[in-house]
Amino acid sequence: MRLRHSKSIVRPIIPLFAACLAMLPIGVARADFAVEEATIEQIQAAYLKGTTTAREVTAAYLARIEAYDQQGPMLNAIITVNEQALAQADALDAQLRKTGKLSGPLHGIPFVAKDNIDSGDLPTSGGSASLANFQPERDATSIARMRKAGGILIAKASLAEFANGGFDSINSRSPGYIRNPYNTAYASGGSSGGTGVAMAANFAVLGLGTDTGISVRAPASINSVVGLRVSHGLVSLDGVMPLNVFWDTVGPMARTVRDTAILLEAIAGPDARDPISQKSKGHVPKSYTAGLKPGSLKGKRLGVLRQIVPADNSDPRVVALMDRAIEDLRKAGAEIVDPFAMPELPELTQGWTGFTRLRDDFDGYLAKHPNAPYKSFKDIVASKQYLAPRFETAFTHQANYQYKADEDPTTPAKQKRSEEIRQAFLKAFDAARLDAIVYPQFNFPPKKNGDTYTPLGRDQNLYSSVTGFPALVVPMGFVAPGLPMGLQFFGRPWSEATLFEIGYGYEQATHHRVPPPTTPPLADSFASKFIGTWKLIAIADRDPGTGVQTPAERGAADGQLVYAPNGRLSVQIVRTGRDKIPVGSADGFSSYFGRWELLVAEGCMVHHQDGNLNQSRIGEAGKRYYGFDAQGHLSLTTPPSKRPDGRELSSVFVWERIP
Fold first, then answer.
1. The pTM is what?
2. CA distance 8 to 334
3. Complete edge-to-edge strand list for the sheet that includes strand 301-304
């Protein structure tokens, strides 16, 4: 397949991009900074410190796309790679060197955007072969705002064709299913499946998706990332291929709640090009991150809507995850109303059918793009340049619907029912004094790609779409075989800041997010220096004032340390001389497990302890300051602590990699 645009590289010829990366200076993708799971705050701190550059970070993410999207696990999440991304990163680096200041809140942060959102320098296909060569003349407002804030668009993400999907994503522009990086036999969720997978697989830091009925929340849940369906009108729909403008939204996606909130701050608010966005006037707070701090869950009242997770129509593993999540929320300070019931809800939602607007809304989009190869959605359907076996029935019905969207006689009754559902939820929120309603994103685990029979349980996704109220999905854990599930927090209109506080508190209390096993750090990445099994070879005490090291007073020890590619951690240390300790005693033995987090800007590895032989230390996040010697030995130094004799000393553990 040929090059689609002079400033872009289209996904089928990504191997050509590998050659471009290979010609970069050797340090570009090999700087001592780990992009895997890196946050905005960590990356920008490293920029200011000089630990890395926007070029290095961008190149590292591009290398990951090259390694994993059409090779290895073949995730198939990317349609177009931006050939100009490195040049844009260079410009940001030059600006930082000149001014000493970041250009904006997203300075040097690579992001991907769903390929139904216009980009002025990359094609926008909607996932359809019919628009494979379509080049918009300018960026959509959401992308323009991200770039103005300093973001770097590195790729356009794949999707279900024209955003018609929920449990999976497949299209005619990039043949084949988008694959789940946690288990590639399974679906990615849709329709923003490419964005969700790109976030999970560390192809970028941030992602833009769209959500009409389910399309940000589904891939967020299924890929163990954070996704927000915003209040309808909070983010401009300018330059977005529509599905149903009554429900359409642009939604932020990221690996953490804080990064998702930072992204929303960059794109939220009224836009003169989108009349619907005028609803957001007076509803955009100064900050979506101000409340993201310890204790953010304290006093929040959450209603558990168990009636939509019935035992006879839910997987027991999902119910178990939900029950654990509710208990975790309670322990973190939330006030739980369980069960919280809305007996009128089944009658209100029974027999609900959506609005038939795709044809006319899409025609309105095409009318704003005179250079588009087709002038109407009906022409697109007539061309057969789409995935006909999957979408022909739906697209033909939409194209030939007997009524114009604004003249459809069924619309008033549907709008009336929508308002009744909105009012029912508002009354329920008020009556129970709730900050949010909580339930699983799905009642069942993800499906395998191509499976059209296994249920998911989707009624709960209807509520946010019909009401226009926001809903935040945060990782809830995993079910066998290693499949992620998400927890949804459904809020009042314009309550995104409150939902972020709730989601942040839950995220920090549980840390369910772990990177997928199919996309580990690349062999030449900094994080790969830690991954593996290590044998303890020495322990020393260090005086933090003088730096002098002496043999550890606690004596010699043996031990093993494991840093797994999926972010899991295991440590066991056994002091010598334990033969003198009574049988059954744990004295002189240290053992814990959990997850590891590499903070390059601080020069430390964080050991998050999910379990510990010493129960008082469960939940600790212990910092270990790292170093490597000429022989490749890894030293991990603890922060200073007071010893019985009153001295402040650090412990230094020296490890040797086991082949």
1. 0.91
2. 48
3. 8-10, 78-82, 152-157, 110-114, 206-210, 250-254, 226-229, 471-479, 483-491, 436-440, 301-304, 335-337
Mean pLDDT of 269-295: 98
Positions marked catalytic: 114, 191, 215
**In 550-574, which positions are buried (b, 16+ CB within 10 angstroms) versus exposed (e)?**
eebeeeebebbbbbbbebbbbbbbe
Cβ burial, residue 362 (10 Å; 0-12/13-18/19+): buried
Residue 274 DSSP code: B
Percent of the chain with pLDDT over 70: 93
Calculate the dihedral angle through the C-alpha atoms of 315, 318, 322, 328, rounding to the nearest 10 degrees.
150
Burial class (CB in 10 A: 0-12, 13-18, 19+), 75: buried
Chain-centre distance for alpha carbon 319:
23
- Cα(616)–Cα(318) distance, rounded to whole angstroms? 29
- Which residues make Cβ contacts (< 8 Å) with residue 10, sequence separation at least 6? 1, 3, 4, 79, 80, 81, 123
CA distance 318 to 439: 10
**Of 214, 260, 222, nearest in space to 75 by CA:** 222
Fold (CATH) for 8-510: Amidase signature (AS) enzymes (3.90.1300)
Q: Cα–Cα distance between 543 and 642 in angstroms, integer?
A: 11
Cα dihedral across residues 324, 328, 330, 336: positive or negative? negative
Does 193 have pLDDT greater than 70?
yes
- Note the Cα 146 to chain centre separation in Å: 17
Does the pLDDT at position 17 exceed 60? Answer: no
Q: What is the pLDDT of residues 93-135, one digit of tens each?
A: 999 999 999 999 999 999 999 999 999 999 999 999 999 999 9
Pair 593, 570: CB distance under 8 Å: yes
Helices 257-267 and 141-148, axial angle in degrees (round to 10):
110
pLDDT digits (tens, 9 = 90+) for 544-564: 889 899 988 777 788 999 999
Res. 8 pLDDT band, cuts 50 70 90:
very low
The closest of 75, 76, 84 to 17, measured between CA atoms, is 84
Q: What is the pLDDT of residues 303-315, one digit of tens each?
A: 999 999 999 999 9
pLDDT tens, 76-93? 999 999 999 999 999 999
Reported in sequence order, the residue ranges of 360-482 that DSSP labels E, i.e. its strands, are: 436-440, 471-479
Residue intervals in the chain for CATH 2.40.128.490: 530-657
**CA neighbor of 306 nearest in space, from 443, 433, 425, 464:** 443
pLDDT of residue 453: 79
| Domain boundaries 530-657, corresponding CATH code | 2.40.128.490
Decide: helix, strand or coil at residue 459.
Answer: helix
Bond preceding residue 376 cis, omega within 30 of 0: no
Give the pLDDT mean for 364-389: 96
3-state SS track over 440-451: ECCCCCCCECCC
